[in-house]
Design goal:
Elements (H helix, E strand, L loop, with lengths): L1 H11 L4 H18 L3 H8 L2 H14 L17 H14 L7 H25 L6 H12 L2 H6 L6 H25 L4 H17 L4 H15 L2 H29 L5 H18 L3 H21 L4 H16 L14 H19 L11 H19 L4 H26 L7 H14 L4 E4 L3 H6 L3 E4 L6 H8 L3 H7 L4 E4 L1 H7 L13 E7 L11 E6 L1
Helix pairs in contact: 2-6, 2-7, 4-5, 5-6, 6-7, 6-9, 7-17, 9-10, 10-12, 11-12, 11-16, 13-21, 14-16, 15-17
Length: about 525
Amino acid sequence: MMTLIMHRLHIALQGAWPALLIVGIVAAAQIFLITRPLEYLLTNILPDDAFYYFEIARQIVLGSGSTFDGLAATNGYHPLWMLVLLPFFAVFGADVGGLEPIRAALALSVLLNAATGLLVWLILGRFTTNVFVRTLGLAIWALNPFLLYQGVNGLETSLSLFFVALLFWQALKIEEKMAAQGQVTLLNLVAFGLIGGLCILARLDTAVYVGAILLWVWLREMSRQSFKQAVLAGIVVFVCVAPWLLWNVTNFGMLTTSSSGANMLVNHTLIFQDNGTGVYQAIKGEFYMIHGHISALMLRTSAPGLAYMLFGSALALFSIGAWTIPRRLRDIPVAYSFALGFALLFFLNVAVRWTGGRWYFVSFGILVAILAAVVIDTIRGRWPFRERTKQLAALALTGLIAFLFFTWWHKELTDPAVQQREMYATALWLDDNLPDARVGVFNAGIIGYFSHADVINLDGLVNNDAYRAMKEQRLYEYLHDAGITHLADFPIYLTYRYRSFWGVPDITEHLEELQTVFLGGHSRSGDGLHIYKVK
């Protein structure tokens, strides 16, 4: 069996030395990043949310169950990545503030990113036969500084992106089977279902990719047989996901996670808190979120000018008839369903939930790489320039991409989270000054992971009790119910972001300030992180 797998892999990657070179460069760069000192990891690589995963994994290994703080149970995470983390904490130790299990998990992320890179290479091979164009597409995806950093962010990103790419690759194989044989095998459908189930467990909102491709399987033939095929694959997906859904409903009375609900609650509340309620404000909020996140999406290609040029070129190719929109359902390629899946992913997060973390839409890079390959391939075929001209154009384009990537890295990815130094310093201050206190924190990941104090999450992401209190606007009451004696966070979170959830007019009247932790040299945290005693 292993021999057969290796043989097929050898055939698939034959002539893939450009891909192996690019993947090797990226892996080396990411290994360099994850072996940097802790301060660099905190300010450049690991967001506070990653430490929610690490602390919950630590608590599970210690036998405390699915909890961040040992007080409240939580389902505020994507389950497959949590399962992946557990062995690292079991093997490398579950000590407070331990770095060994984190570095081991990040090393796995590097391997997952390398595997995803090879999958993207295989995917691009379905859209172009030209090695240079294929290599350029992979470079646009793999060497993107934003993706290079997000691929080792300690969250589910690398695992999710791997399964999204694997899902699309399996969908392309199904499309190939349909074109060659007029039907798809049971094995292909079951494999797609298994991959789809794991894809959803890796990141729950990728269910839209699975649904979009299953819809394509049915509508392509629009027959009873194709409907049965889609249903069969869907059943396999459901069987994979059902245990997680059952656990959620049984223990928490919800299908989704507390983190998804809390984020949506806060962002919806902020729009109305700042602008008032009403249909007009809701519509304005929709446009504000969509516009802002589309701009951010293009910026995070690390070459927004190039991305806009690619999309503009695609429209131009449609307008001159070089590309045409399929008129029959059976002629619609599965790539369209993948694009539809991303559009739904973006719309549901941005326009419905009004939220979108930096890592939510990393799969957009695969679409950009495919678009680049198809646009360049079409231009090469439609306008046969002289070989010398092609070489100069290729050199100029490569240089432009390298320049844009470096510029974006230097501007956007140099100490983007410098305020997290103060969160780490606060964890140490709590150990020295309030080791026996129960401290409520909104940005609780770093402080909770590195402090021996009893740190309670207040933003509801990994505390279902706090999430419930937020929905009922009684967060101040929850402080007393949970025995929280102190608060620690940046003032903007207390007096602005979560102002509507306290249940009291002015939370500062119920607090006594004890300490400010401000390391200086930046303005991202205002005047620092404040520590208060709850009256």
